[in-house]
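Data availability (excerpt). The following record was deposited with the supplementary files.
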Amino acid sequence: MAVRTPAKQAEGLYFITLTCCQWLALFEITNGYDAVYKWFDYLKSKNHFVKGFVIMPNHLHVLIDFSKSLKVLIP
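Predicted structure:
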């Protein structure tokens, strides 16, 4: 079940959790860990900061500190 909470202000520290469909171990099966690291690099290039993260085979927890220039999260 997807839950989306709109942010009233773009900047700030956010705790984000992503889960794979039906809790399948898709990060492990597809070796998708590199895609997550590339997303982190993209965020850094947009002046956002990953403060902490945990990548598990079927889900991801991440703390992201967004700067004021929040426009696009995923390329």
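Summary of structural features: Residues 12-66 form one domain.
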